[in-house]
Amino acid sequence: MEALLSGTWRQTFCHGAVQRELGCQSGVRAPALLFSGLGRLKVESVERLHASANDTEFETIGLSGSLVQQTLGGLVEPFSRPTQLLTSQEVIDALYAGVHNNAISNYMAFYSSELGGIVTDPALMIVSVDDHMVHRGHAVFDTATLTKGYLYQLDDHLDRFYSSASKAALTPPFPRNQIRRIILETAAATKCFEGSIRYWLSAGRGGFGISPLECLQTSFYCVAYKNAAPPDPRIGWKVKTSPVPIKDPYFATLKSTNYLANALVALDAQLEGFDQGVFVDSEGYVAEGPVMNIGIITHGGEMVVPPFEQTLAGVTLQRLLHLTREVLDRGDADVLGFIKKVSQRPFKLEEAKQAKEAFMVGSSTVVMPVIQWDDKEFLQTKPTPEVGIIALSLRALLEEDMDPTANRGQHVEVPYGFLTGA
After folding, report:
1. What is the mean pLDDT of residues 353-382?
2. Cα–Cα dist 67/335, whole Å
3. How far apart are CA 382 and CA 32, in angstroms?
4. Residue 160 exposed, middle or buried by CB count within 10 Å (0-12, 13-18, 19+)
């Protein structure tokens, strides 16, 4: 189909500093005319446009800002505009103009092995589109908590990071001691004492194929950011059993960047008015939340969490299990009170909903009481309203361990002096 111009169009084309007026006679193709110059096009007047394919006439007046207000016989999308071909400077300008408020306020430092160092400008915290982490999801990651100038459980998180990398057939570009140093120095570059440090190992850049054999080398990235305001544990969370299928055990136990299922679990819950969703397998066994582990306290005083055969081995959860068992071994009933036994075994959804309490555990979550699971409420109202008293005791136990002044061998000091050479 060819839309032909009938009559005379008077046009002004603006491209950089060049402006010219053209008188266009019948026979000039309208789409070519409309998008000529890849610049801003203003149609000052149009007498009549004739579409030869169906002999339909259009009156198009007042077209401006490159917006096409008629379909022109189906040749041009309505309300479309020409795609710009950007210069290097325009790209840089766009990167800076596109930095959003969350990035400005909370993205503190970023290391890229592709850049070869650390940047603190959020506009420069970028990853190449041909990195296989971007278009194939071939990457693993982990996160450590920055608290009072120390990284909590850094080495335990690195152990899991390297385990995930092995399962994903990824070899870091540097030795482990160098990876560890990069993480610590990225934290130091923030000049902040609180936040989170997340780091990725990617198959790397090199093409848009499926095999990582085309990649130049693996890439390592690390970002330090401020945490969002934590939810109030005294209020607790409402959780929903998710319809999203659970991951295959091999991938559920591998902390890769493919979190589509996890994102859908969270979205499904939040759209229904809940705080979090819960993966449950085809046989009704409870697995985990989208980014946290889950557990229950039975009426018999048993603290139960699912085994790690089809869930991610939560570093924070493992520490909580260790601390709880220590308390029980000491016979210190004042600390946890009701809990008499710690178990890691499968349990079904029905058992979870019949439990005395339920809770979620994660590095940023710490321990969060569950006050409602689907239509089952755990809120105790007699004699006074109480929200997850046992779960809150577990939280207090873990928060004490997270304090570096406790000196329990779980913290690595951030070397802030590397910035000044001190």
Report:
1. 90
2. 68
3. 76
4. buried
Walk across the sheet containing 49-51 and list its strands.
Answer: 3-5, 49-51, 56-58
250-254 mean pLDDT? 95
Judged against a pLDDT cut of 70, whether residue 214 lies above it is answered with yes
Q: State whether 71 and 208 are in the same domain.
A: no
Q: Are residues 209 and 75 in the same domain?
A: no
Q: What share of the chain is helix, strand, coil (3-state, %, to 5)?
A: 30, 25, 45
Q: Residue 215's CB: how many other CB atoms inside 10 A? A: 20
- Dist. CA 168–CA 138, nearest whole Å: 7
Domain count of the fold of the chain: 3
Residue 103: how many other CB atoms lie within 10 Å: 14
Active site residue 341: no
Q: Which of 59, 85, 111 is the last residue of a domain?
A: 85
Higher-confidence residue of 77 and 295: namely 295
Q: Give pLDDT, residue 22.
A: 36
The partner residues of 296 in beta bridges, in order of sequence, read 304, 358
Exactly one of 148, 255, 341, 382 is catalytic; name it.
255
CATH code of the domain covering residue 270 = 3.20.10.10
- What is the rounded distance in angstroms from the CA atom of residue 160 to the CA atom of residue 142? 8
pTM score of the predicted model: 0.80
Quote the CA–CA distance of 147 and 396 in Å, as a whole number.
Answer: 16
User: In angstroms, rounded to a whole number, what is the distance separating the alpha carbons of residues 182 and 111?
Assistant: 8
> Mean pLDDT of all residues in the chain?
84
The residue range of the domain holding 64 is: 1-85
E strand or H helix at 11: strand 9-15
Task: For residue 379, give the amino acid letter.
Answer: L
Query: Could you read off the pLDDT of 156-176 as tens digits, one per residue?
Result: 999 999 999 999 999 999 999
Distance CA 400, CA 368 (A): 15
The continuous run of DSSP H or E covering 20 comes out as strand 18-24
Rounded distance between C-alpha atoms, residue 288 and residue 280, angstroms: 8
Contact by Cβ (8 Å): 136, 206: no
Whether 342 and 399 share a structural domain? yes
Could you give the dihedral angle defined by the CA atoms of residues 229, 234, 235 and 240, in that order, rounded to the nearest 10 degrees?
90
Q: How many CB atoms lie within 10 A of CB 262?
A: 19
